[in-house]
Amino acid sequence: MGAVGFMWRGTKHTVKIAALLIFAVIATVFVVRAVDSQRGPPLDRWHTYHPPELSRSELARADLAAYMAAEDKAFAGVKANVTDKVDPEDRVRFNRYFASSPIYPPGFAQDFNRTYVLQPKAREDGGEPAGAAVFLHGLTDSPYSHRHLAQLYADHGFIAIVLRLPGHGTVPGSLTEIGHEEWIAATGLAMREARRRVGPDRPVHIVGYSNGGALALMHALDALDDPALVRPARIVLMSPMVGVTEFARFAGLAGLPAIFPAFAKAAWLNIVPEFNPFKYNSFPVHAARESFALTQLLQANIERHARSGRLTGLAPVLTFQSVLDHTVSARAVIEQLHARLEDNGSELVLFDINRSGQFEDLLTRRSDTAITSLLPPAPRRFRTAVIGNAAPGASTTVVRETPAGAREETVRPLSAPYPDDVYSLSHVAVPFPLSDGLYGLDPDPAEKFGIRLGDIAARGEYGALVVGVDMLVRMSSNPFFPYLEERVAAGLPSARAP
Question: Across the beta sheet with 204-209, what order do the strands follow?
């Protein structure tokens, strides 16, 4: 008994020391984060105001008209509590919440922060729509990100319902409260509206970008189990959030000091001036945690359906993904999604890095070999298309297409070269053509949104700008958008004449 007692006391001592060490580590992290959060600009009205939004239960009962009426109240709240009370020092040219700013969204012909519906030309002429499509944007984003694809769908006879997800389009402070449960409920609302508008016999598609891609997949998988949900006939994904970086798992720890009012800024990972009219620049900890929670639910959902063999009922999935993506895991898109799909007509389009020779020696080895490490060898159960240089050192580009089940690829030239000063696409670039007025590398001069973020060529010294240089150099439009449109249109009826 003496030996046993000695071992027990030794074990208790070890556990006590381990507990003290863990406490010391957590306390150190807490203090360091609390101190670090005090740097940078103070919180503004758009960080602390929370406009009213429908609850999850209200979303489950509402239709699109009720949702848009509630949306009007949310925007009215932003005007009354933020715009009309902007402090004098914040009345600057590039503040989206200053009513006299050239980027003030309500000042544009259309405020793309709001939900909108595009009617097909055939519908306006009295004909029946070919179907309906629901569009879901990304985290901190807005319906603006789907304006080009939504128009493509409308041109092909579809009703395009471009949804503003709860917590978005208004003020970044809204994302300190809203989360994935509200987003999932709003997705179901939009799909119900799509089915109501086209009846039971016409197809309903779902299109998701980034976080919206995760929501599109979640809805499609849940609809396999729940007949009350609208089952999409086709799923289109751009930079889908199937997996995110592991940092998001622990992002909640960064916000712990915010339990004390003096350290409220700790609830934010970024506090940045809001100079983008259709996207939040500031990013709260809560949003990172919610995006991670959504991807965990999605991965478990995919795994559960794969184990039970129910993925056979999933609609064809068309995915567009840059091999370099700092926001989501390109590997997860392939290994946790496409590699598990049955041979049901699904397709994966990958955008490779620019191998023209100007940047290759400056890229990390991991970046240089991304395409070979990501894509499994043929044959595959899904069609693949890889867009990249025709040959090492060439600026001309080709697409290498491999049908599902085939080993041989076909190569055909593309008319769009890789721009000389671009080394890769990015997470945010995929849904925007080079001509996009806000994000395009060669913006259409007829499109005026008060600022051009895609063709900024900033030169100067470190530390002088109020934003990180990486925000300005990240590629924000897609040179190969015509190919993206081609693949999306391949699954639609022939375009109808106006």
Answer: 116-118, 158-163, 131-136, 204-209, 234-238, 317-322, 347-351, 383-389, 397-402, 410-413
Summarised one tens digit per residue, pLDDT across range 35-88 is 444 556 789 999 999 999 999 999 999 999 999 999 999 999 999 999 999 999
**Listed residues 255, 281, 308: the one ending a domain:** 308
> Kindly report the CA angle at 211 between 433 and 246, in degrees rounded to 5?
115
The pair of structure tokens assigned to 98 is 């200053």
Residue 448 inside a domain? The answer is no
DSSP 433: B
Domain boundaries, position 274: 41-308
Predicted structure pTM score: 0.91
Burial class (CB in 10 A: 0-12, 13-18, 19+), 344: middle
The DSSP bridge pattern shows strands 116-118 and 158-163 to be antiparallel
492 assigned to some structural domain: no
- Where would I find the H helices in 113-155? 121-124, 147-155
CATH of the domain at 298: 3.40.50.1820
From the list 145, 111, 96, 144, the residue with the least C-alpha distance to 427 is 145
- Going by C-alpha positions, the residue among 273, 268, 271 that lies closest to residue 256 is 268
Which DSSP helix (H) or strand (E) runs through 184?
A: helix 180-198
The separation between CA 348 and the C-alpha centre of its own chain, rounded to angstroms, equals 17
Alpha helix (H) residue ranges in 226-326: 251-254, 285-308
Structure tokens at 220: 């499609």
> How is residue 293 written in tokens?
């929670």
Residue in the structure block whose two tokens are 């499994």: 376
Residue 411's beta-bridge partner residues?
400
- Taking alpha carbons only, the member of 299, 369, 291, 388 closest to residue 339 is 299
- Residues 161, 261 share a domain: yes
Residue 257's identity, in one-letter code, is P
Give Cα separations from 197 to 137, 158, 190 (angstroms).
Answer: 21, 11, 11
pLDDT tens by residue, 219-261: 999 999 999 999 999 999 999 999 986 656 555 555 566 565 6
